[in-house]
Specification:
314 residues; alpha/beta; Nucleotidyltransferase, domain 5; 3 domains; five-stranded mixed beta sheet; four-stranded mixed beta sheet; binds iron/sulfur cluster
């Protein structure tokens, strides 16, 4: 039976997974919403990945990344748990070895990774501010009565993008309301929003970073052609978007798990001895909705808290 390696990226919004063969080719992949329940999401993901295989594969390595990596790594008996920066860099360099900059915009977070000669030399992530993320774009699309999937094509049809204040999400939002009231065309406002997301991103996360080509753009928002075009214009250079860009974290940890001691992974992971409970952390005005995961009385991990203090919520 052929050997395979499983890689899983569990984020707050979406859960992604791949199975690769010994040569590093993706032989099964799946993407789904986390829906606030990473354990259920991963169980369903693993089932889908197994069904996506067209021949029997013996999984000899499991790598996990993403915000719930510790928890999912424990449940799956992973032989590798890695942070998102390393995972994304390894995955991206596998498909595009000369990459110098990775721009990533997901649903609730974004990051930038600077690479020199195949090595990560600088990075930044945002976790507390929505500026420059997909959730900002989708909430504004809703306000304009536009489906999130349609934003990109509507944006590129604009001849005269509105100037939306890009300093931060709050300013951008109030400026958007003003533009609607002033009668700006929908496509111009949407193109302006795409530019605002890029402006937010470059002014926050990209601030002071050496953004050199080749540049790879990934994460859910990279599927939005309006934002891709806005990046090209703002940076004055071409941007590479891989069709599997959303899977790079999962691919990275699958590849890295190959270097670890082999394990025998059983697809029938239904260890249900984990319990979850949810409460609100009042440690600061963020009031995070925290899900605590326990095995017996022992706290294994927490979910939804934006800082370590959320782990202490009773
Ligand atoms: S976990 Fe608690 S202290 Fe930390 S950011 Fe959220 S609300 Fe604030």
């Amino acid at each position: 039976m052929k050997k395979g390696y499983l890689g899983i990226d569990v984020g707050s919004i979406s859960t992604k997974g791949v199975i690769i063969d010994e040569e590093g080719n993706i032989v099964s992949s799946h993407y789904m919403w986390t829906n606030g329940n990473p354990i259920e999401a991963v169980k369903s993901l693993v089932f889908k990945l197994k069904n996506g295989l067209n021949k029997d594969v013996k999984i000899k390595g499991v790598g996990v990344t993403g915000s719930a990596r510790k928890l999912i790594g424990t449940i799956l008996g992973a032989n590798l748990v890695k942070n998102e920066i390393t995972a994304h860099a390894v995955g991206t360099l596998h498909v595009k070895p000369d990459t110098k900059t990775i721009l990533e915009i997901g649903g609730q977070d974004s990051k930038i990774i600077i690479i020199d000669d195949g090595v990560v030399v600088d990075y930044a992530m945002n976790t507390l501010c929505a500026a420059g993320t997909g959730s900002f774009l989708s909430s504004q699309a809703k306000r304009l009565g536009v489906e999130i999937e349609d934003i990109g094509n509507i944006a590129i049809s604009s001849k005269n993008p509105s100037k939306i204040a890009a300093r931060c999400t709050v300013f951008a939002e109030s400026d958007l309301v003003h533009k609607i009231q002033a009668g700006h065309k929908k496509e111009d406002i949407i193109a302006g929003l795409c530019k605002a997301v890029v402006g937010n991103y470059l002014n926050n996360i990209g601030k002071g970073k050496k953004i050199l080509s080749p540049i790879v753009f990934q994460g859910g928002v990279s599927k939005n052609i309006g934002v891709v075009e806005a990046f090209k214009e703002e940076l004055g250079t071409d941007i590479y978007v891989d069709p599997n860009g959303h899977l790079m974290g999962a691919l990275g940890v699958a590849l890295l798990s190959k270097n670890e001691e082999e394990i025998d992974f059983d697809f029938n992971i239904v260890d249900l001895k984990f319990t979850t409970s949810s409460r609100e952390c009042s440690g600061c005005p963020n009031n995070c909705e925290v899900i605590i995961v326990k095995k017996g009385n022992e706290v294994i991990d927490s979910w939804g808290n934006k800082c370590e203090r959320g782990m202490l919520v009773k």
